[in-house]
Design brief:
heterodimer, A: five-stranded antiparallel sheet
Chain lengths: 114, 112
């Protein structure tokens, strides 16, 4: 089955700096890679996702890159702001049959200091 | 709000109690999921239902019993739990045509 490793477990940056979180996955058949943000006491919310036929995707200050050969993908946040402080989870899955079996990484606690 | 509603938000139960967690979505999604979120572990997939049929059961102990009576409702029945079962239980749903998972706010469960 799929296994997802996520690093680092904690990340502290100054406001305005960039933050990068990296994940590796084990199942080469996986074809969908979302990133979720979870603020304290709240539900995980999808912030960006990428499919295996795409190498990079951007949405304003966030971007995700995927290297299928190396089986790793990364989240990049530029110009970080205090409201970016949260736990970020990567996930991977093979989508088939109308449902998916997302396997999550352990999470990265990002702290953005003013 | 994602349109996925979980009740109760908080639950405290003894090891001999029986309780149920409820999840409801009116988004027209065909798949529903239970995840467990513990303090020091990744989000763990417990069960998946697609079109009201259980399609995944990730080696979850029998003291957790899911039920999906229709495509809008999902339950997790709890019986004879252990203190290590204390966690945040998250429900999610996804549409047939899209891989995106939409999570509820979760039920914070404490087993005494």
């Amino acid at each position: 089955g799929e296994n997802v490793e996520q690093h680092p477990s904690t990340l502290s940056v100054q406001e305005g700096d960039s933050a990068v979180i990296k994940c590796t996955y084990s199942d080469s058949a996986s074809n969908y890679f979302p990133w979720y943000k979870q603020e304290l006491g709240k539900r995980p919310q999808l912030i960006i996702d990428i499919r295996s036929n795409v190498g990079e995707k951007k949405d304003q200050r966030i971007a995700v890159t995927l290297n299928k050969t190396a089986k790793h993908f990364s989240l990049h946040i530029t110009e970080t702001q205090p409201e970016d402080s949260a736990v970020y989870f990567c996930a991977a899955t093979l989508v088939s049959g109308g449902y998916n079996k997302l396997i999550f990484g352990a999470g990265t606690r990002l702290a953005v200091h003013p | 709000e994602t349109g996925v509603t979980q009740t109760p938000r908080h639950l405290v139960m003894g090891m001999t109690n029986k309780k149920s967690l409820k999840c409801e979505q009116h988004l027209g999604h065909n798949a529903m999921y239970w995840y467990k979120q513990s303090a020091k572990k990744p989000l763990e997939l417990m069960f998946v239902y697609s079109l009201e049929e259980r399609v995944e059961n990730n080696s979850v102990p029998s003291r957790f019993s899911p039920e999906c009576p229709n495509s809008s409702h999902l339950f997790l029945h709890l019986h004879t739990l252990q203190p290590e079962d204390s966690a945040l239980y998250l429900c999610a749903s996804s549409p047939w045509s899209d891989e995106k998972l939409f999570f509820g706010s979760g039920t914070q469960l404490s087993v005494l």
